[in-house]
């Protein structure tokens, strides 16, 4: 059977299997291995069985491990699986776990043809050898499967749809109403940075200052200050991951500040040997601050919880404004805050350019702020000393219970939902019973349950999207199951998050129905680090394959529709850059970079990329997701880096027939003003062909100015590549390498670094 596109949700239950025999591991053999395990202390266990769910070669779900029963294993686990895959069969693979790698016991096949009409299939499937020959008589597995087509669901392309939208289903945290959200662009915004941006009800967009608000929140806290971060900067000394972790702990030694340095021990589904290789390479990436704060309108005995989440770490190099200077503040604001990790040996003594930093953050008030507190408590109880936390009885004495901070009739009220990428190895209190875990969207990993609700939130938002999606993110790669094979075994890459494929499939559906839809993606020129290095080049290569997959989908849809449109009329990528001509009185460095280095070339040309560290998506100006999660597998997997994000909307702005003109719209327009250096009426309709072409034209013009060494009216640059009519990516003429470097724009495949680290 030819593969069929399964784009939607699979509801799967794996009940049990009969007459499943392992790879020959006898009871005596298992006992020996378990004794070794107890002696060595890996704690993984041996001789265990699990069942994986596959669409072609891509694993989309798995059960928990069962101790080798030498009988009939019973899992009784249910799954809600988002899918966007070509497949002929849903494959159930029974595997025996061992220290080196899992061994396939047998596979059962359910033809996709039995599922596409949406009917529930409940049956026993014969378990075959991996060569599809019969195994033992009576060897079978009991499953129930039902497929729900995304394009036929009631919420497909309908946006939020209603002020009573209940939020993303099957998540650990429910959606909270009566909240207030404050959105921040960059660490600081000067007064009168933007012209007036009109909002509904005669209001205008207000600017807020992230680091000033964070300082005030910490300074005014009386009972608790809870912080999670990749990098909390206090002294100039790097920890294991160059994030100042060790010196943060040293700084607070013998004080009332309790600091836990907790390396990430991920549940990434790897074998014990693989775990040893990569266990130090993943991070706790959440960036949260939780404080007690006074109640609005006075100072009664009790206080409330206020939380901050987003992309900005509390460390060096993050302070910046929407102007993003690269030379002109080296003797003032950035004299003691110089950061430039993209050049070897860079320092303030050798001069600029500094690495400018663009980011997005938010403050949460109301019931959702307590969910951020719960996240901190779960993490601390897992990896810290529980006695150091304020206990529930103490909290009751000093805090009001979770309650709305805005009334339902207030036009500025928000509904907010918290999402995470995290597993039971990093968070205390996850439900252990499979049915309880499934109800809150948790999935089985190798050794614990996993929360990957951030990816679920992105998928849900894209499927609901009506007219446009605007993304800013530090990385953009995924959906490797749909990449062109060429010189790589895509099934071994493992960048399985659905976000890029969901975006291209949404565009394809709109082309088929004759509707406009636009996707704008802003990413860094290259990932932070030496641009010629193996890791950066590998990531750029994955990024190129992701982009090409998406453009190929769009080009095919245009051909099928008989349209001669440019794929960039629907999907377009940008980066940010800054050029500063030299001015009298500037800082003069005492040293110079090495001749003929990237550093010296960038210093001479007076230009550098603005590093995009934001992790944000805006949909239809109605809904926003922002937090710490990148669009890559590390952030979206749940069993790799730990992440946190929120999804939010303002109900009032969905109750009218007019396009949403609330704070999300105002925030996007403010970001566009920062990047484009102008406002235009066409920017109010990002889905329109007029808008996407205008933005592309401005960005292309800016690239020519940037590459020729001239000042720019804005920061937005077209990403340096061409897209052919069949969706292939080619080099922009004269731009094989990024300006001032010897780093290839499209990167190069690494044969040394495992893909699990660079995806």
TrEMBL record:
GO terms for cellular component: plasma membrane. One of its GO terms (molecular function) is calcium ion binding. Transmembrane segments: none annotated. One of its GO terms (biological process) is phosphatidylcholine metabolic process. Pfam families: C2, PLD_C, PLDc. Residues 1-125 form the C2 domain. InterPro entries: C2_dom, C2_domain_sf, PLipase_D/transphosphatidylase, PLipase_D_C, PLipase_D_fam, PLipase_D_pln. Gene3D superfamilies: C2 domain (2.60.40.150), Endonuclease Chain A (3.30.870.10). Its cofactor is Ca(2+). Keywords: Calcium, Hydrolase, Lipid degradation, Lipid metabolism, Metal-binding, Repeat. Residues 280-318, 608-635 form the PLD phosphodiesterase domain. SUPFAM superfamilies: C2 domain (Calcium/lipid-binding domain, CaLB), Phospholipase D/nuclease. It catalyses: a 1,2-diacyl-sn-glycero-3-phosphocholine + H2O = a 1,2-diacyl-sn-glycero-3-phosphate + choline + H(+). Its EC number is 3.1.4.4. Hydrolyzes glycerol-phospholipids at the terminal phosphodiesteric bond. Belongs to the phospholipase D family. C2-PLD subfamily. This is Phospholipase D. The lineage of its organism: Eukaryota, Viridiplantae, Streptophyta, Embryophyta, Tracheophyta.
């Amino acid at each position: 059977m030819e593969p069929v596109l399964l784009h939607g949700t699979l509801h799967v239950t794996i009940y049990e299997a009969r007459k499943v025999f392992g790879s020959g591991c006898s009871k005596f053999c298992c006992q020996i291995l378990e004794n070794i395990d107890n002696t060595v202390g890996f704690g993984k266990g041996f001789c265990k069985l699990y069942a994986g769910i596959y669409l072609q070669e891509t694993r989309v779900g798995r059960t928990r491990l069962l101790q080798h029963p030498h009988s009939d294993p019973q899992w009784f686990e249910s799954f809600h699986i988002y899918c966007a895959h070509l497949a002929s069969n849903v494959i159930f693979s029974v595997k025996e776990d061992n220290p080196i790698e899992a061994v396939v016991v047998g596979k059962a096949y359910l033809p996709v043809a039995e599922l596409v009409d949406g009917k529930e299939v409940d049956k026993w499937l014969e378990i075959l050898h991996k060569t599809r020959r019969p195994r033992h008589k009576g060897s079978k597995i009991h499953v129930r499967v039902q497929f729900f087509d995304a394009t036929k669901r009631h919420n497909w392309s309908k946006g939020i749809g209603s002020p009573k939208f209940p939020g993303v289903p099957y998540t650990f945290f429910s959606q909270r109403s009566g909240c207030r959200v404050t959105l921040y662009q960059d660490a600081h915004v000067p007064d009168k940075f933007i012209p007036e941006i009109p909002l509904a009800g005669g209001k205008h967009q207000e600017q807020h200052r992230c680091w000033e608000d964070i300082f005030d929140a910490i300074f005014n806290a009386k009972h608790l200050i809870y912080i999670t971060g990749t990098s909390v900067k206090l002294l100039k000394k790097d920890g294991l991951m160059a994030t100042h972790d060790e010196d943060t702990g040293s700084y607070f030694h013998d004080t009332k500040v309790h600091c836990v340095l907790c390396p990430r021990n991920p549940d990434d589904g790897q074998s014990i040997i693989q775990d040893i290789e990569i266990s130090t390479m993943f991070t706790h990436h959440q960036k949260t601050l939780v404080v007690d704060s006074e109640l609005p309108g006075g100072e009664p005995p009790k206080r409330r919880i206020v939380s901050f989440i987003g992309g900005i770490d509390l460390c060096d190099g993050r302070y910046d404004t929407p102007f993003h200077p690269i030379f002109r503040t080296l003797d003032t604001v950035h004299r003691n805050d110089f950061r430039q990790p993209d050049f070897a040996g860079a320092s303030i003594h050798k001069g600029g350019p500094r690495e400018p930093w663009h980011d997005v953050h938010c403050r949460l008030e109301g019931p959702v702020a307590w969910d951020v507190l719960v996240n901190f408590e779960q993490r601390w109880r897992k990896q810290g000393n529980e006695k150091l936390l304020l206990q529930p009885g103490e909290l009751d004495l000093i805090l009001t219970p979770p309650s709305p901070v805005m009334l339902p009739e207030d036009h500025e009220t928000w509904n907010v939902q918290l999402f995470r990428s995290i597993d039971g190895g990093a968070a205390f209190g996850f439900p252990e019973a499979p049915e309880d875990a499934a109800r809150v969207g948790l999935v089985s990993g190798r050794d614990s349950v996993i929360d990957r609700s951030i990816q679920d939130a992105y998928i849900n938002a894209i499927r609901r999207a009506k007219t446009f999606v605007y993304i800013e993110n530090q990385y953009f790669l995924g959906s490797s199951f749909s990449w062109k094979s060429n010189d790589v075994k895509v099934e071994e890459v493992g960048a399985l998050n659905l976000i890029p494929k969901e975006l291209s499939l949404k565009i394809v559906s709109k082309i088929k129905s004759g509707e406009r839809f636009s996707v704008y993606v802003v990413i860094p020129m290259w990932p932070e680090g030496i641009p010629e290095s193996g890791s950066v080049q590998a990531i750029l290569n994955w990024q190129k394959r992701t982009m090409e997959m998406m453009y190929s989908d769009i080009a095919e849809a245009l051909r099928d529709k008989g349209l001669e449109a440019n794929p960039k009329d629907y999907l377009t990528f940008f980066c940010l850059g800054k050029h500063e001509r030299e001015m009298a009185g500037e800082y003069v460095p005492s040293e110079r970079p090495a001749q003929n280095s990237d550093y010296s070339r960038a210093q001479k040309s007076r230009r550098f990329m603005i590093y995009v560290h934001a992790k944000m998506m805006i949909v239809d100006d109605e809904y926003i997701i922002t937090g710490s999660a990148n669009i890559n597998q590390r952030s979206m997997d749940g069993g790799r880096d730990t992440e946190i994000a929120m999804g939010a909307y303002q109900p009032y702005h969905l109750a009218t027939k007019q396009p949403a003109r609330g704070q999300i719209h105002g925030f996007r327009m403010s970001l566009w003003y920062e990047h484009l250096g102008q406002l235009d009426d066409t920017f109010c309709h990002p889905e329109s062909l007029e808008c996407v072409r205008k933005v592309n034209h401005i960005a292309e013009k800016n690239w020519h100015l940037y590459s020729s060494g001239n000042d720019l009216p804005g920061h937005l640059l077209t990403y340096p590549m061409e897209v052919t009519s069949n969706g292939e990516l080619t080099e922009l003429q004269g731009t094989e390498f990024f300006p001032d470097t010897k780093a290839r724009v499209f990167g190069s495949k690494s044969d040394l670094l495992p893909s699990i680290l660079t995806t």
